[in-house]
Amino acid sequence: MKEASELLEQLNDRSREVFRRVVEGYLDSGEPVGSRTLTRSLSEKVSAATIRNVMQDLEYLGLLDSPHVSAGRVPTQLGLRMFVDGLLEVRELDQSDRVKIDATMGSNTNDVGGLLDQVSSALSGVTQGASLVLTPKHEAALKHIEFVSLSRDRALVVIVFADGHVENRLFAPPPGQTPSSMREAANFLNALIEGKTLSELRTTMVQEIAKRRQELDTLAADLVESGIAAWETGSENPGRLIVRGRANLLGDTGAADEELERIRQLFDDLERKQDIAEFLQLTDESEGVRIFIGSENKLFSLSGSSLVVSPYMNADRKIIGAVGVIGPTRLNYGRIVPIVDYTAQLVGKLIADRT
Hints:
The protein has helices at residues 4-10, 13-29, 35-39, 48-60, 77-87, 95-104, 112-127, 179-190, 198-212, 218-232, 246-250, 257-271, 276-281, 333-354; strands at residues 64-65, 74-75, 130-134, 142-151, 154-161, 166-171, 241-244, 290-293, 305-313, 319-328. The protein has 14 helices and ten strands. Helix 1 packs across helix 5 (77-87). It has a five-stranded antiparallel beta sheet with strand order 7-3-10-9-8, sandwiched between helices. A three-stranded antiparallel beta sheet has the order 4-5-6. The protein folds into three domains: 4-87, Winged helix-like DNA-binding domain superfamily/Winged helix DNA-binding domain (Arc Repressor Mutant, subunit A, Orthogonal Bundle), CATH 1.10.10.10; 95-136 and 239-354, Beta-Lactamase (2-Layer Sandwich); 142-232, Enolase-like, domain 1 (2-Layer Sandwich), CATH 3.30.390. Mean pLDDT is 77; it is low at 230-238 and 273-277. By secondary structure, the protein is α+β, with helices and mostly antiparallel strands. It is elongated, with a radius of gyration of 25 Å. One of its GO terms (biological process) is negative regulation of DNA-templated transcription. This is Heat-inducible transcription repressor HrcA. Keywords: Repressor, Stress response, Transcription, Transcription regulation. Negative regulator of class I heat shock genes (grpE-dnaK-dnaJ and groELS operons). Prevents heat-shock induction of these operons.
């Protein structure tokens, strides 16, 4: 299969215009676009038969598809990718959209979580899609750590930060832990904590365990490794994912039952917080807005939906979270892209101002 950019270069002016009109018509209405409709909008006057021939060629290239024998055409996933990469005209952020987003972020609260909840709701309301906001992990210096056994296979780690922030997280400890081994693990960590963030503690801990493994009870060492892994990369809570506006997708009465079931499955996955770390990793390759269509992104491939996502950064230009909008593949990309881009930049600035 040829890359979308290579296919675009192969198209002549007429084929390119027919293709663009089909995609724009589909994104606007959600319905297949027929040759007779195009005869009224093309810049050059050509017959419906000529347009049908062009559409057949585009279908042969894998850019268009015909859902029914006698119906018009719709873009394929490859076609949408080519359109987004080469033909999409991203317009300026609409002033009314800007006002709505700015109004939501005008709060003076120092609670970053509360601010991002408001941002997520606003993004969903403005776009009429489902919004996703991945909140940053707390990166302040640590003050104290304590392990609390809850049951044979469940434990709690209490993390106290120097700025007064406290987090409680559940994790599954290695088998055979005792109160004394948990105390020993906590004492080991607390001796290393001063002035370090969780990420820095993880690096120091690995080095210290290598040097002092003989000094530690084996069970305590296992507990330390298990606990830190739960904070840094485990499935419990690598970051908090805020999902708003699922009704905007589930309430689409025009969607087929099978599509709605896929969307429900998507949100069930999100709400279980599976693969959240990957959501942030999607943005690592570039600073700007990225668009994932259908199966291009395994996190959202089950829904047959598109994701428009952008990272936001702290004052040190480090990616700490992401915002995005998910909706049907016929999203109004030209409008959604500047909204997501503006929101991400604004969130980064607001967080930097509060830290």
